[in-house]
Automatic annotation (TrEMBL):
Taxonomic superkingdom: Eukaryota
Organism: Gigaspora rosea
Record flagged with keyword Transmembrane helix: yes
Compartments reported by the entry: Endomembrane system
GO cellular component, one term: endomembrane system
Keywords: Ion channel, Ion transport, Ligand-gated ion channel, Membrane, Transmembrane, Transmembrane helix, Transport
InterPro entries from the UniProt entry: P2X_receptor
Designated name of the protein: Uncharacterized protein
Length: 379
């Protein structure tokens, strides 16, 4: 038999059966419609056309500013007096990447240097010059609250970049939202207009400390639940210190692939107190001043998912979701072959059966003629 080129270069295609059954047709279209809506929702609403990645943190800078006028708040009239500090004294340390600490209660003591000692240079633990906070101290500031801390304003600046994408942006170019600790209720929206309204040259987001305390669900005058707090004396968070974790979540704006937005998600960490000790060595007389600070520790964490439009991502999502359409076919097929009263008729048309005998295909008489005729025409 000669080699038939037509079998090599012939085009092969599937043969289909069109089932003219209104019930099946309607069910099929309904399934298709539901799946199509789901696919559109996934791709458009959930932005499957983006190539996304987690943002790489840039810098977070937090600065504090004193309000123009301060009253004497009511908590200053209790057993603990108040002291009024400038913004630079309250924030410690002044430069802090990813966090900020604001003093709410402070004590300062100066420990004079025993004559002839250098407390940085001691030869053994029993050396009398080995520094120990001792009774020989001069109180510079008795334990005091920092007055009006809630009314100080803080400015937050932050930035991110992408690794796989070319995104690199600071918050001054994005819109933001400060949420309550439930992560859903909006406390305040920040846009370029609201940012520049407070200060035309401001690039960061300005909140009062009270704004962030309220949003995170913290109250400085509430009794502290920290294990180290003096509960019998009713020690408050103002005295023990408090930790507030703020997640900054970055996202693309739906339908605007080149715009990003962020949200602040603050939450107070229950029972977490915070204390920082500042040591200042006077190199002239060798005395050491210790400032014992309790206060609000804001910890920032940058997270989210940022992306750019990417055709291959869109294609991948499309192909993955189109496979879902097969599910509609599968369900209708099962209904057709298993549940309808006419299932046998449909099975007959769907499957062409050959009958085998002794390993040979037996062609029925009617078809035999047809095949002979076709073969003759071809040759
Ligand atoms: C803080 O600001 C509020 C609202 O402007 C004001 O009522 C309050 O007296 C201020 N507190 C202090 C200590 O200045
Ligand atoms: C400071 O000195 C006083 C007595 O003058 C003493 O009661 C107190 O415990 C000392 N404080 C520290 C932290 O050593
Ligand atoms: C923000 O607003 C100011 C003043 O209205 C304007 O000069 C500036 O270009 C705006 N910035 C952005 C990023 O839109
Ligand atoms: C360090 O001590 C000397 C001597 O007591 C004093 O004159 C000076 O003001 C102190 N310096 C600081 C920064 O406290
Ligand atoms: C960071 O964001 C991703 C995606 O939005 C999320 O799955 C993950 O839980 C987030 N992680 C934290 C620590 O918030």
């Amino acid at each position: 038999m000669a080699f038939d080129w037509r079998s090599l270069f012939g085009y092969q295609t599937f043969k289909m059966v069109r089932v003219k059954d209104l019930r099946l047709g309607v069910i099929f279209r309904i399934f298709q419609l539901i799946i199509l809506i789901y696919i559109l929702f996934e791709i458009i609403y959930n932005q499957r056309y983006l190539k996304t990645e987690a943002p790489v943190p840039g810098a977070i800078r937090v600065t504090l500013q004193a309000p123009n006028d301060l009253d004497i708040p009511s908590y200053c009239n209790g057993a603990t007096p108040c002291t009024f500090w400038g913004a630079n004294e309250i924030q410690y340390p002044s430069d802090s990447a990813g966090y900020a600490f604001f003093t709410t209660r402070a004590t300062a003591r100066n420990y004079p240097n025993p004559p002839g000692c250098n407390s940085l240079r001691t030869t053994s633990p029993s050396d009398p010059c080995f520094f120990k906070p001792s009774n020989n101290n001069v109180t510079i500031l008795p334990t005091s609250y920092i007055g009006g801390i809630e009314n100080y304003t803080m400015m937050i600046e932050h930035s991110i970049r992408g690794e796989a994408t070319s995104i690199a942006i600071r918050n001054g170019l994005m819109d933001g939202t400060l949420f309550y600790s439930d992560g859903k209720t909006v406390y305040k929206k920040i846009t370029n207009a609201s940012r520049t309204q407070d200060n035309p040259r401001a690039d960061g987001d300005i909140f009062t400390i009270q704004d962030l305390l309220t949003a995170s669900g913290a109250n400085l005058d509430a009794p502290s639940t920290a294990p180290g707090a003096d509960k019998a004396a009713g020690e408050t968070y103002r005295s023990s210190g408090i930790v507030i974790a703020i997640v900054i979540n970055y996202q693309n704006v739906r339908f605007k692939t080149d715009q990003l937005v962020y949200s602040y998600l603050p939450r107070v960490i229950d029972g977490n107190e915070y204390k920082v000790t500042e040591n200042i060595l006077n190199s002239t007389d060798g005395s050491i001043t210790i400032i014992d600070r309790h206060g609000i520790r804001f910890v920032f964490q940058q997270n989210g998912s940022i992306g750019v439009f990417d055709f291959v991502s869109l294609l991948t999502s499309l192909v993955a979701s189109i496979a879902l359409l097969k599910v509609a076919e599968l369900i209708v097929e099962i209904i057709m072959l298993r549940f309808l009263p006419e299932k046998e008729v449909y099975e007959d048309v769907k499957f062409d059966e050959t009958t085998y005998r002794r390993g040979e295909v037996e062609v029925n008489k009617a078809d035999e003629k047809k095949y002979q005729k076709r073969d003759e025409e071809q040759n």
